[in-house]
Structure formats: structure tokens, C-alpha cells
Amino acid sequence: MKQTILRKYARLIARSGVNVQKGQDVIIQCALDQPKFVELLVDECYKAGARKVRVEFSYQPLGKLHVRHQSVSTLSKVEDWELARLEHYAETLPCMIHLVSDDPDGLKGMNQQKLAKASLRRYPLVKPYHDRMESRYQWCVAAVPGAAWAKKLFPELTKARAIEKLWEAILFTSRVTDDPVAEWEAHDRALASRCEYLNSLHIAELRYRGDNGTDLRVGLIPEAVFKGGGDRAKDSGIFFNPNLPTEECFTSPMRGKAEGIVYATKPLSYQGQLIENFSVRFENGRAVEVRAAKNQALLEQMVAMDEGASYLGECAIVPVDSPISESGLLFYSTLFDENAACHLALGRGFSDTIRGYEDKSLAECRALGINESMIHVDFMIGYEGLDIDAVTRDGETVPILRRGKWAF
User: How far apart are CA 399 and CA 346, in angstroms?
Assistant: First the structure.
């Protein structure tokens, strides 16, 4: 891929993604797949005014080794230096950039029960720091090609050509044009306009129906709003784009208000493994039954991670004619596949979907109905056969999606 194009993408992440301000620190978390692009990104963050940029590399095979050889007590221990780092983050609020490139099957064979036990023990220790940071800092998730990921999408191609094809798909769906910053400004305005209309309806309930068997009702929080595109950090008011790409209008529903069954329309990449052909049935807001043709046990483990893991944290509306959907690719990556189709998320909700959240505490937002959990896992339910209706607080039924496309 041409360096000039990759430079534009790096600039987009730094300027429109996290929107680095003069004097801010930046943390980049990534795998080992594209070090030259990481170099470009670091350079662009400094050019945007960053005081200091630190890169934290990870490597999937090492993660498998740690889980295999360490005891549960060792895996679950949060060292003093880790707590000090979290305290530093909570105090300084650095910009956080996450570059996705991992193999969708890269953790296959790992002892998931062992990892889950360790995660459950670690979570109460790190949760207070994450709560302090919620909605207060700029962050962005973007993607670069990994070799195994590219071969998963394009198995018939050589490794080099597969990586090039995946670069092309990432840049196209991320709207890296001649002027990607201006392109994203226009895209953010379009998504904001959609959300403005949805919020004007004062929706009490969303009803999902599909010819694949989906029949689900989800209650919304009266004080919640739909959001899409860019966001603003709670304290500073700095505008940033959390996901590159993004096509969704989303909200957090009322905990405990979901009834019916929904069928996933794309595989879910979770903990480095794929869960395929699955359904979730809800009663009183809780996922009471899950079925999967592949990795049933992993799906059951996911919804049992903690009390909130079996409740919904997000409802997102995405039309089937989004650029990602029109690419015709199944990315095996939540960042992309969730923006090709309507999706739901099990687990943690978003406090910043509450109207006036800037003047409320996290506890107050959760008291209004925002779900709390250690997980937030999106799964895709949209396709050409999905209809969504909104039932307003006045009892009117308004079509939102018909055959997978906007009905307004």
C-alpha cells in the first residue's frame, strides 16, 4: 500500500479519531503486524501536538502461553505496578488508540474457563479505575491488516496479496479519500441527523421482526438518547470518533426490558474464537437461553461472566446498504461486522447515552437503567429481512427499518 495513503489514514486516526490536542499523552495498543504503520501513526500524533506517545505491543501466541502455564491465582493477580499505571491513566486521561489486527481464530484451543475465572477475580480490582475514566477521555478503535486475519478473508490469495486486499477494504470502509478528515466531518453530520430524528420520536420500545425467526421487544430508557458518529469527552468537551469505521445509531436500553428471541446473522469473534449460527432468548430482560452451532460452551460462558452479562447494554441500528455491507466481505471482526448490520450488545451499557450525563454521576446513570457488567459484546442481527418498529411513548408505531434499510 502506498505510503501517502497510509499517511492519510494515520493522520485521520490522530486528528479525527482521538483528536489529539497539544500537550496530551497518547497510548497506542496494537499487535506486531504493521510496525511501519505504527511508526506513521506515532509521527502523526506528535505532529498533532502530543507531548508523549507510548506503544504497547501484544502478541496472541504469548497470551495462550500465559494462560496455559500460569495458575489462576497468578493470572488473576493485579500487580502493584499495574494499579499504579491505572491510577496514572485515571489522573492524566491519555488518548487511547486501539489498532485491531488479530487472527479471529488466534486463541483457539486456549483454556477459556481458566481465563474467565482469572478475569472475574481481576475485575473488581480494576473496575474503580475504569469507572473513574468512563466518558472522560478520547479513544479510538481502528484496524490494520494482520497476516492471519487477511488469509481468513482471502484464503485463495498469497499472504502478501491478501494483506494488500485487506488494506484496501479497511481504507475504503474507513472513508480514506482525498480528504478523509472532511469526509468524516460530513459523515458525522449525517449520523447526527439520523439520531436527531430518532430522538424526536420519544421511543418507548423497539420491536424487531425477521423472517429468520427473530421476534424481540426491547424497552428504552426515557432519559436515554440515540448517538452516532463522534462523541465528546465529558470533562474537556473535545470531539473525537471512537470507531473508525462507524455506521451505527445506537442507544443503551432499559435493563430488564427485553422479551423474545433474536438470531445472529454473522459469526461472533469472542476471546479469539468464532461463535457461529446462534440465537439468544430473553425473558424479563435476561438471556435465559442461548444456542449455537459452533462454540456453544463459549457462548454460555460469556453470558454467565457476571450478573450483568446476560442483559442488554446496547441497541444499534445500521442499514444493510452501509459501505461495509456493500463491500460484500465478512470481516470476522466486530469493529467492521457490527457496522455492516444492526446489532445488540450483551453486558455493559453506555452512561453517556443518558441525556445530561455530563451533570450526573455514573451511579445515577446506572440507576436510570444503564446495565453494568465486565463485558460488552456486540453481536450482529441485521440482514435484508429485518424490520424494526418504534413504539412511541404516545403509543404510536413508527417504522424505522424495512427489509434492512431505513424507512424514513
Answer: 25
Q: State the Cα–Cα distance between residues 358 and 135, nearest whole angstrom.
A: 9
Cα separation, 369 vs 374, whole angstroms: 16
The candidate with the shortest Cα–Cα distance to 351, out of 237, 279, 249, 255, is 255
Query: What mean pLDDT is predicted for residues 200-220?
Result: 98
The alpha carbon of residue 104 and the mean position of all alpha carbons in its chain are separated, in whole angstroms, by: 15
Note the pLDDT tens digit of each residue in 314-337: 999 999 988 898 888 989 998 998
CA-nearest of 279, 302, 283 to 291 is 279
Q: Where do runs of H (alpha helix) occur along 93-216?
A: 112-133, 147-153, 159-173, 180-200
Contact by Cβ (8 Å): 399, 407: yes
CA–CA gap between residue 222 and residue 212 (Å, rounded) = 30
What would the pLDDT profile of 34-90 be if each residue is shown by its tens digit? 999 999 999 999 999 999 999 999 999 999 999 999 999 999 999 999 999 999 999
| Secondary structure (DSSP) of 66-116 | HHHHS-HHHHH---HHHHHHHHHHHHH--EEEEEE---TTTTTT--HHHHH
Partners of residue 106 on adjacent β-strands: none
> What count of other Cβ atoms lies within 10 Å of the Cβ of residue 88?
13
Tracing cell 453486558 back to the chain, one arrives at 347
Confidence class for position 301, pLDDT limits 50, 70, 90: very high
The C-alpha cell 503486524 sits at 33
> DSSP readout, 136-152?
TS-EEEEE---HHHHHH
Round to whole Å and give the CA distance between 8 and 6: 5
- Specify whether the CB–CB gap between 251 and 314 falls below 8 A: yes
The reported pLDDT for the residue numbered 322 is 85
Whole-angstrom distance, CA of residue 83 vs CA of residue 226: 34
CB 12 within 8 Å of CB 244: yes
